[in-house]
Specification:
Elements (H helix, E strand, L loop, with lengths): L10 E2 L2 E2 L1 H19 L4 H17 L10 H19 L6 H11 L2 H21 L1 H11 L5 H8 L3 H22 L2
Antiparallel strand pairs: 1-2
């Protein structure tokens, strides 16, 4: 299981600690690559090396307050797509489309987006406080303690508001047919 740490946790004296990064994220990167399938072992190794090269080249530009796993996943995907483009003479456009579509269930993505939009519309109707707490927690990935401090509320108030908002959303989802 990968650690959900901030980018800043991988810095030692303003330098990126690649040993720790490699130890924590190599298997994660490998899993992302293997989820795309049809990648040879030597290409897999090259992609992993390219991910760490990108991190090394951009280490001074990294936002230390963001989580590392989504950042690494994005870099890995871009490199995989670049690799597929390089190998495009081996793949037809139809093969490439099949690979992408088979990896992403389009219907599921559309349904999740609809539910997400519906939830946000209904959370806005609950009130400004509920909306702010909900979006800060679920969309901005802020901790309850941080939200309480930013909004000048108690921890229990934020937790209670999140709980009540979730319960209201569940009821509304059931009534809405989701």
């Amino acid at each position: 299981m990968i650690k959900e740490e901030l980018i800043g946790a991988y810095f030692d004296k303003e330098k990126l600690n690649f040993e720790k990064l490699l130890e924590d994220y190599q298997s994660y990167i490998t899993a992302i690559i293997r989820n795309f399938g049809t990648i040879k072992a030597e290409d897999e190794e090259e992609i992993i090396s390219d991910v760490f090269l990108v991190l090394w080249k951009n280490s001074e530009k990294l936002n230390k307050n963001l989580k590392f796993s989504p950042y690494i996943a994005g870099i890995t995907r871009r490199i995989i797509f670049k690799k597929y483009k390089e190998l495009s003479n081996e793949f037809s456009i139809e093969d490439y489309d099949k690979i992408l579509v088979s990896r992403f269930n389009v219907d599921k993505i559309i349904e999740e987006k609809e539910v997400n939009n519906w939830i946000m519309e209904n959370v806005k109707k609950l009130g400004e406080k509920e909306y702010l707490i909900f979006t800060k927690f679920y969309y901005e990935d802020k901790k309850v303690k941080t939200i309480a401090k930013e909004m000048n509320l108690s921890l229990s108030n934020v937790k209670t508001t999140l709980h009540r908002t979730r319960e209201r959303i569940k009821r509304l989802l059931n009534l809405g047919g989701f």
